[in-house]
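Q: What does the assembled structure look like for these inputs?
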Amino acid sequence: MIDLAQLRREPEVVKAALARRGVTSATLDAVIELDVQHRQLLQEAEGLRAQVKDLSRQVGEARRQKDDAAASALAETSRTLGDQEREASAALDELAATLREQLLFVPNLPAPEAPDGADEHDNVELRRWWVGMDEGAAQPTYEAHQRVAHWDIGTDLGILDLETGAKLAGSMFPLYRGFGARLIRALGFFALDRHLPEYEEIRPPSFALTETMMSTGHLPKSADDMYEIGRDGLWAIPTAEVPLTSMHRGEILAEDQLPIRMTAQTACFRREAGAAGRDTRGLLRLHEFDKVELFAYCTPEQALEAHADILRRAEGLLQALGLTYRVLDLCTGDLGTSAARTFDLEVFSPGVDRWLEVSSVSWFRDFQARRANVRYRTSDGSTALVHTVNGSALAWARIWAALVETYRQVDGSVELPAVLAPYLGGQTRIPTRSS
RNA sequence: GGAGGGAUGACAGAGCGGACGAAUGUACCGGUCUUGAAAACCGGCGUGGGCUUGCCCACCGUGGGUUCAAAUCCCACUCCCUCCGCCA
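A:
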């Protein structure tokens, strides 16, 4: 949620910033107008309430003086005012709800450094990395045996069974088996270990209350993309960011606690409602996938470094796995609702011949903290909202795809990078079924 | 799932219709005393919001209700504790 006080104080600044991501001036004017009305009504209701309270005190006083006639008269006046107050308060509540609702739909102000742009085509590529680059290789090269899509490799080697996954839960719910299942497990363990002990490992619930989903901005705006368990008032989490952001919801943290850094692997559930039929082959787009998330609550001063650290770690994993990737600086038109600045990491999938997003590293400023009401005590004793940053490190389904393609051998087997050996019982080779 | 008990400021813990944003203790901050520290004593010490910046309003688990007036009474819900049942 943006800062209403800032919108009130410097509307032109906010408008200019949000215009970069397509929010019209009229939208914000409507919010400002609601805010004006809200405060007018607030004063009216509070004035009435103050009178009722004062009269009530006088009633009590009169009763003690045994002046029942005066007490009754005062009570009568107070009752009348009380009715008016009730009416004003009801109107006030309605207006406040409308204001809040509109405010919840206003996206975050983009960071000045975020590049301008309308959509994903305007994202700015900052750099690429591939094996051998440091030794002077001009570009990654792939042989014909690496140009096989992971869904074919998965079927050939018996490590991915999408048909059975679909039989159990519908399409886009993958089922890994044998070495494929073990590889997914290994990737999560591998990444979590690398983030300890700087990041505390968390294993959060897989479902979250509506209020929890609100804090990160996933609700109300993206309700169609979330799995809802209506009977219990719960939602399946689309990312560990949801529970992690709310861990300190409503709290005031001590400044010396910050930054609080956490990592968690969870299943992530996404309905992908707006993407029906697109990129549905193999593991390109799924309703459920595992992802290790990195997250930090920090002071505004710590935020940039915390953001950079998560990006470094995500890149470090990709480099350790020897996968080709690129870093994108998301343009204002492609930023998520809550983000001020986001870097996406895309891994190259030689078999599918496409770049696949495997990480999104975002700085939210105080946008999420305002919704979640997470603050800290500053050195001068006052309170301030924390900043939140997070990023995937990494989303495993697509990494799984890039790995089996990149490391496919001439004979059809897959020879995985040695860094994974400790997590694979020492066996890095996925053999062909005939061998 | 059944029965009972509970939820109050950083913590502990009073209050159970009116002068209660809330006793008291601890912790914390400032001061006096002291060579210094401790002790003792004095003072301060929740969070938001509104505007005429001095006042007003809200908040005692959450949401409703009763009343001139609710931390206090009523209803519903959530969570915690104890016991019983069931269960990986």
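Residues 39, 42-43, 45-47, 49-50, 52-53, 55-61, 63-64, 71-72, 74-79, 81-82, 252, 375, 381, 383 of chain A lie near RNA strand B (CB under 10 Å from a C1').
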